[in-house]
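hey so i finaly got around to running the thing on Queuine tRNA-ribosyltransferase from Sulfurimonas crateris. pasting the sequence first so u can double check i didnt mess up the copy paste, my clipboard has been acting weird all day
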Amino acid sequence: MEFTLEATSKNARACTIKTAHSTIKTPVFMPVGTVGSVKALDMEDVLELLGAEIILANTYHMYLRPGDETVAKMGKLHGFTTFPKSFLTDSGGFQAFSLSDISKASQNGIEFRSHIDGSKHFFTPKKVIDIQHNLGSDIMMILDDLVALPATQERIALSIERTTAWAKESIEYFRAKQKEGVGVEQNIFAIIQGGTDRAFRTKSATELCDLDFDGFAIGGLSVGEANQDMYDTVEHTVQYMPKDKPRYLMGVGTPEDLIENIERGIDMFDCVMPTRNARNGTLFTPFGRLNIKGATYKEDNTPVDSECECLTCKRYSRAYLNHLFRAREITYFRLATIHNLHYYLNLMREAREAILADRFAEFKAEFYSKRG
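ok and heres what it spat out for the C-alpha cells, dont ask me to read them lol
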C-alpha cells in the first residue's frame, strides 16, 4: 500500500491510497457488498455507473457461504465477483457477535453458531487472517473483541486487553506469512475499541498504533450511543492515530455523520444505510431524505434530485419510482440503490474538492444550509 496525505483543511484530510488493484481518493465511502455483491446491483453498475474504487465484503458471511476455500478456488474475491478494484474485508467478529444465537468471546477467540444452519464455529486471530488470505482482499481487518454499549467498565477493559493481545498475535502471524510469500499484496488494519470512554480509547489507540499495521480503524461506535458522543469519541481518538496512515471509521453512517467525522480527520467509511434505506423507500438528497412511498409523488414528474447526475435522476421521475416501489417491482431496488450510492460517493468527491481548496468549513456550512 502507498499512502499520501495530499492536503488538509484544519483536521479534514484529502489522501490517496494505492493498493494492488486501485487508486483510492479520500475521503471515501465504501459500498457494502456483504456476500460479494452490492445488493440490487451488478458489478457493471458499481464500476461504470458509480465509479467505486473499493467495496467491502464480509468475512463471516463469505466464510459460511460459499466458503472461503471455494472463493479461493474461484479466483479469490476479484475473480469470483469480477470486481477488479479493491476489496476491504472486515474480520467477521461483529457478525459472529450480533447474528449468532450463541456467541461467546474468550481469551483465544469467539465461539459462535452459524445463523444459517446452527453449526458451531470458532474464530481466532489467525483463523480470520487465513480466511482473508483465501478471500484475497486488499485490506483485511483483524479480529477484535467488540462490546455492545452500554457496558461495564470491567467489560470494556477486558475488551481492550483482548483486542490488543489479538492484534499482536495477528500482526506477527500476518508478517510471518508475508515472508513465506502469502498475502504479499494484502494490507492489514487494527481496530481501536473502548466505548465512549476517553481513557479507554486512549489506551487502546496508543497500544495498537505502536504496532506495525498498515492502517487503523475506530470500531465499536454507532451502536446506540448519542451522535455527539460518537463525534466526541472520534475527535479524541484521532489525535493518537498516525497522520501517515489511513483512518477508518467502521459502520458509519448518515450523510451528517460522514461530514462531521471527515471534519474530525477520518478518511474511510462504510455503512449499509444507503442501500438498506433505498430498498425501504428512503432516498438521500442534498435537501434531506425523500420518502418515495408518499402519495404526494404519485403524479410528480420531476426527478428525485434535479441536480443529480445519476442514471436514475437523469432518466426517471419520482412518479415512476413511486409506482415501482408500490408495485414491489425489482427494478425499483436497482434504481433507488444507484441513486443513494451515487449521492454518497458524490458527497465524498465534493468533500475532497473542498479540502483540496482549503474550504471545508464553508462546504460543511453549505451542506447544512441546504437541509434547512
